[in-house]
C-alpha cells in the first residue's frame, strides 16, 4: 500500500523550528553558516539522495557516497539527522556536506548480522514503544524494544494500544509495568479515544513510534497528527500481525508542537552495543545483583546469588531472568563481532605498513 501523502507537499508551510531546530543548534551551526552552508533536517533518506526540510521549504539533496559510510553504516545520514547542505550552484541540486552531531540515535544490529549497527532514526527525544492489547502480550519483545530505546538516549514510553479489545486493561497495564521499570505505561484506544490526551502530553520533542506491524503505530500516529496522513492496514486474526503499511521512515510536524517519526514495523530488532540499555530495562535484576555474594555472579548456580533467591521466592519471575540472560548473551556476541572487526582493521593496517616497508627496502637495495 502506498503512503497516502508525501512530506514534500506539507513541508513548505513549516519552518526549521517546527522540526526541532533550537538556539543550541543554531550556535553550533555558526561555522557552517559562515562557510555558506544551510541547515536542514532529513525527513526521508534514500540511496544517493535525501529529502530534507529547510527554512525555505522542502528540497531534495544529493548524498555523496563515501568510504566511511560503506565501512560503517552508522555514519550514513538517516531520518532525523540535522545536516549542513551546500546550496545548488554548478550542481543541479543541493549537496549534503556534513551530518551534524547526533544527540540520540536508535541503533539496531544490521539484518546481515554483521559487526555494524544500523541507525533507524537520529535525534529522537521520546520513543513510544507500542504494544497491542488485541494480541497476547509478548514481554520478551517489549523488553528488547525498551533496551533499544533506553540505549538510544531518548525517553521510552510504553503505549498499550487497542484497549477496546482487552477485557482487563488494568491487569495488562500492571503486567507490562513490571517489565518496564522507569518507563511510563499508558493505555490507549483509537476506537474510544481512551488515553489520547495523556499520550499527547507524554510524547514530547521528536517522537519515534517503535513496535511490530499490527501494533497500531500508524493509527496512533494519525491520532497525534489530528488527520489521516498515515496509511493503516488490517491485522490478521490468526496471529495479530499486520502488513507493513509504512515503507519508509518520515518526519511529520505535530499540530501541538514536536515531530512524529513514522517508521516501518520491525520484524526483528537485534541489539547492538546496548549494555546501558539492558541495565535500564532490567533495573530490577541489576538491583538484586548488587546483593550477590560474588561481584561477577552469573546468576546461574553460584552460592549466595540474590537474583536466584528472588526467583525462588517469586519476587522475580523466572521468565524475566531468562530474558535478561538471553539478551545479555546476544549483546555480548554483537560486541565480540565489533571487537573482531576492530582487530581485523588493526591487523590490516599493520600488514599495509609492513608491505610498504618491504617495498622501500627493495627499492633502496636496487639503488646500491
Automatic annotation (TrEMBL):
Residues 108-269 form the CP-type G domain. PROSITE patterns: ENGC_GTPASE (PS50936), G_CP (PS51721). It is an enzyme of class 3 (hydrolase). One of its GO terms (biological process) is ribosomal small subunit biogenesis. Keywords: Cytoplasm, GTP-binding, Hydrolase, Metal-binding, Nucleotide-binding, Ribosome biogenesis, RNA-binding, rRNA-binding, Zinc. Pfam families: RsgA_GTPase (PF03193). Zn(2+) binds at residues 292, 297, 299, 305. It is found in: Cytoplasm. One of its GO terms (cellular component) is cytoplasm. Its EC number is 3.6.1.-. GO terms for molecular function: GTP binding; GTPase activity; metal ion binding; rRNA binding. Its main location: cytoplasm. Binds 1 zinc ion per subunit. Residues 122-267 form the EngC GTPase domain. Monomer. Associates with 30S ribosomal subunit, binds 16S rRNA. Belongs to the TRAFAC class YlqF/YawG GTPase family. RsgA subfamily. This is Small ribosomal subunit biogenesis GTPase RsgA. It comes from Streptomyces marincola.
